[in-house]
Structure prediction request, 260 residues.
Amino acid sequence: MSLVQQLGPHLPFLRRYARALTGTQKSGDTYVKAALQALASGTHELDSMPPRVALYRLFQIIWGQTGARLETAPDSGSSIADRVLRIPPQHRQAFLLTALEGFTIDEASQILAQSPENVRELIARAQADIENELATDVLIIEDEPVIAADIEALVLDLGHRVTAVATTRSEAVAAFRRNRPGLVLADIQLADGSSGIDAVNDILRGASVPVIFITAFPERLLTGEKPEPAFLITKPFQPETVKAAIGQALFFHEERPVAA
Prediction:
């Protein structure tokens, strides 16, 4: 397989990462181009890693060697790009590689030439930055009292506020309308036999809000039909998984217009 065939499928995602990292499409593409030119000229070679990991590692080397400086966002900006740029640079890289690009901790450590322990620490600091900035009201849709209490404790531990714990579809919709939250955490199977999916669909018809499903029945959502949820956690869940999903859901949510 040629180098073009190996790397071609990964270039759009590298451009996405470079844009998020540097703050602009123009700046990001400049660094991607420099990395590819270094590879084509023979001044740099890909490390003996899987092609995608090696490509991002090469980008990281070139970016560092050029004395790159990351942009910073205005204090008042609320877009995803603004939020990314307010994260300190090293934290930003580790967070974007894992949360946006989907690399594992070990892969990110190879790309950044840092130990897995250091990468975990950088990600933890990034998530703390996010949590501090994005504290919000949360609606929990869950009919099991013990599970609802566990989720509420996690939400409060992150510095968020819980507006209500709803156990049925009608309760959930009414609670959302009464005090619109910035995040919804929803089970699928509710107390009266109603559906958390239907509750969320009712909510999303009149509002744009990030939703995380926490369910023992993920197959009901992963049907191959669109749209599927961006954030889906299977019960029994790990607390750190829920915390990470909350941070990512809030961070990457863009307010969208909804149908009247």
